[in-house]
Automatic annotation (TrEMBL), chain A:
The lineage of its organism: Bacteria, Bacillati, Actinomycetota, Actinomycetes, Kitasatosporales. GO terms for molecular function: ABC-type transporter activity; ATP binding; ATP hydrolysis activity. InterPro entries: AAA+_ATPase, ABC_transporter-like_ATP-bd, ABC_transporter-like_CS, ABC_transpr_MalK/UgpC-like, Mo/tungstate-bd_C_term_dom, NA-bd_OB-fold, P-loop_NTPase, Transp-assoc_OB_typ2. PANTHER family: MALTODEXTRIN IMPORT ATP-BINDING PROTEIN MSMX, TREHALOSE IMPORT ATP-BINDING PROTEIN SUGC. Keywords: ATP-binding, Cell membrane, Membrane, Nucleotide-binding, Translocase, Transport. It comes from Streptomyces hainanensis. This is ABC transporter ATP-binding protein.
Automatic annotation (TrEMBL), chain B:
It comes from the Bacteria. Pfam families: BPD_transp_1 (PF00528). This is Sugar ABC transporter permease. It is found in: Cell membrane. It comes from Streptomyces hainanensis. It is a multi-pass membrane protein. Belongs to the binding-protein-dependent transport system permease family.
Length: 368, 293
């Protein structure tokens, strides 16, 4: 069993930069856990602190019930795959994969056998005698994975594992990685700045900014019910529309000149709020009405099976995802209706938290 | 790459290169050939042979190989090169570079400045500093160690010039190794650390294979420089006796003190051949490495 528990984790760098500030995070045994955030949010620092490559200024790191906060990296029983794979260029694939076993003084014959077996599981049997320079990017990544797997660690740590692959390979590797993690069932923490990657791979995601956890939840929770405006604008391939508005009578929110239906709950009329709606949950309508957002199309972006339209109107700038066959042209007026059950209300000040009396859209479990 | 990228044509290109070639011919090629010629004569600074040097063929070379003084001097030079360059400068330079690799700020700048200072000071200044350090009567070292009256340059002359040259030349190795170490990706060292590798294992498995080319290049350069270094003469004058009469000092004394210009020239040519052998050994090692990888 190798759950990870980070308690009160603080990391100060020399020069007074505080990368992490009293961070609390629990990763369950066997879980595929993503640390997601923009660059500089501290996600890599968390990963490196779990690995022991960075020493925590305060707080504890517990892996599988053992406090490893003061243990050197080599005694934590974790394996890490780096963004650049960190393969040793002067060693063959076999020697690279067997390297951790060699450090542990496993006899030569045994470690060669184990390296060949692990590499074989990852489809590298033909490449065993090659050097990293003779392999493709995807093969190099699998060698790095094999090296991490070969000594059966309690925890895998992946630092941006897919970012050095080209777009097509990345999709392939993503599916491969997810299947592999399911089969091995080893607790895995990975760092990414790509929200699509985190949504696709992870069992749970921690969204971070400025060294703080902004939300922890399953991909569904984080996507459907972002806990604050930061998460709302960070998650999703097109950011959520966040429109300033005011609660009015009749469970509606006045945004510009439109009175949009919203889960107002107990919020008193006249309260300023931020009305959040994803571009995917806005539907075209031929006629203007009280509950339609109206504007002029300024930009049309073709996304293949859909189009992303940018509207300018009284409500501000609004983005809408419409089917590929809609005949949208810049300059044309457009009316869209939000799906009431997908609208979310956020506080306009502070951290922009989700107003708690919103009902859960789509019946998903409340965020953890 | 096209043969004539600048579009000058053969004649004009030659005209541009000619002045440089003339300078090289006049100040490099001619003196070298002249030294080889002188080495085959009995040319002297004074006396009859100064006016009419006689061609003696390979007599000078035969004399050198027969004389104990030459082999003695060559042996001393090899001690000096191995002790001060290959072991001293290279190991110490690497050690400093390794220890400073993750340090930034005041300490690193201080160490680098001190080490570099030893390297950029003129030889005569440095020699004076060391004579003051090692002096028998009022030397700093005797004061520090509490050993008044120890004449370091007389009692341990070879050790003294070896330590002196390590002190003086380590900066180059340090800088070269520091640059080489910064080319080792941190993620590779960290992978080794995560596997549980000790510092020594990280050096052996990750660092040294990666910087082997830098190591060989450094050893080649510092070996040649040390082999041809004349500065120890300023400390010991080749003495006491001939205990520190390394090759450059031997040549200098033969040609200019004894006035045997012809013999001195022959010794210079022999030195050049030894340099060539050293260079060939290193180049071959470098090639072998490239072929292996």
């Amino acid at each position: 069993m190798a759950a990870i528990a980070l308690t009160g984790l603080t990391k100060d760098y020399p020069g007074g930069v505080r990368a992490l500030d009293g961070l609390e995070l629990d990763v369950a045994d066997g879980e595929f856990f993503a640390l997601l955030g923009p660059s500089g949010c501290g996600k890599t620092t968390i990963l490196r602190t779990i690995a022991g490559l960075e020493e925590a200024t305060a707080g504890t790191v517990v892996i599988g019930g053992d406090d490893v906060t003061r243990l050197p990296p080599g005694r934590r029983d974790v394996a890490m795959v780096f963004q650049d794979y960190a393969l040793f260029p002067h060693m063959t694939v076999t020697d690279n994969v067997a390297y951790p076993l060699r450090i542990r003084k496993v006899p030569t014959a045994e470690r060669r056998g184990r390296a060949a077996e692990t590499a074989g599981q990852l489809g590298l049997t033909k490449q065993l005698d090659r050097r990293p320079g003779q392999l493709s990017g995807g093969q190099q990544q699998r060698v790095a994975l094999a090296r991490a797997m070969a000594c059966h660690p309690r925890v895998f740590l992946f630092d941006e594992p897919l970012s050095n692959l080209d777009a097509r390979m990345r999709l392939e590797a993503r599916t491969f990685l997810k299947r592999l993690q399911r089969e091995l069932a080893v607790t895995t923490v990975f760092v990414t700045h790509d929200q699509a990657e985190a949504l696709a791979l992870a069992d749970r995601i921690a969204v971070l900014s400025d060294g703080r956890v902004r939300q922890v939840g399953t991909p569904t929770e984080v996507f459907r019910r972002p806990a604050n405006t930061f998460v709302a604008s960070f998650i999703g391939s097109t950011p959520m529309n966040l429109l300033p508005g005011t609660v009015t009578a009749g469970a509606r929110v006045l945004v510009g000149d439109a009175a949009l239906p919203a889960p107002v709950g107990e919020i008193a009329p006249g309260t300023p709020v931020v009305y959040g709606i994803r571009p995917e949950y806005l539907r075209l309508t031929p006629t203007a009405g009280e509950d339609t957002v109206t504007g002029e199309i300024t930009v049309v972006e073709n996304l293949g099976s859909t189009q992303l339209l940018t509207l300018e109107g009284p409500a501000g700038t609004v983005q809408v995802v419409v089917p590929e066959d809609s005949e949208a042209a810049p300059g044309a007026p457009l009316h869209v209706v939000p799906r009431a059950d997908r609208a979310l209300l956020y506080r306009p000040d502070g951290d922009g938290e989700l107003l708690t009396n919103c009902p859960t859209p789509g019946g998903a479990a409340p965020g953890a | 790459m096209p043969a004539d990228a600048a579009g000058l044509g053969r004649a004009r290109a030659a005209a541009f290169v000619a002045p440089a070639l003339l300078l090289i011919a006049g100040f490099l090629v001619f003196p070298a050939l002249w030294t080889i010629y002188l080495g085959m004569t009995d040319y002297r600074l004074t006396g009859l042979a100064a006016a009419e040097p006689a061609f003696t063929g390979l007599d000078n070379v035969r004399r050198a190989l027969d004389e104990d003084q030459f082999t003695h001097s060559l042996g001393l030079t090899l001690q000096f090169v191995v002790g001060s360059a290959v072991l001293g400068q290279a190991l110490l330079g690497f050690a400093i570079a390794w220890l400073l690799r993750e340090r930034h700020g005041a300490l690193r700048r201080l160490v680098e400045a001190l080490v570099l200072l030893a390297w950029i000071l003129p030889g005569s200044v440095v020699a004076f500093l060391w004579i003051a350090l090692l002096d028998r009567e009022d030397g700093t070292l005797n004061a520090l160690l509490g050993t008044p009256g120890t004449a370091w340059l007389v009692e341990h002359p070879m050790a003294a010039i070896i330590v002196f040259n390590i002190w003086r030349g380590t900066a180059f190795s340090m800088m070269l190794y520091a640059a080489a170490l910064s080319s080792v990706p941190p993620s590779q060292l960290e992978t080794a650390r995560l596997a549980g590798a000790s510092s020594w294992q990280q050096l052996r498995d990750v660092v040294l294979p990666r910087i082997r080319g830098h190591v060989l290049t450094n050893l080649l350069l510092i070996s040649l420089w040390t082999f041809n270094d004349f500065t120890p003469f300023l400390l010991t004058n080749g003495g006491p006796g001939d205990e520190t009469e390394i090759m450059p000092v031997f040549v200098y004394k033969t040609a200019l003190f004894n006035g045997e210009l012809g013999y001195g020239a022959a010794l210079s040519v022999l030195m050049l051949l030894v340099n060539l052998v050293i260079a060939l050994v290193y180049v071959r090692l470098l090639r072998a490495r490239e072929a292996a990888s």
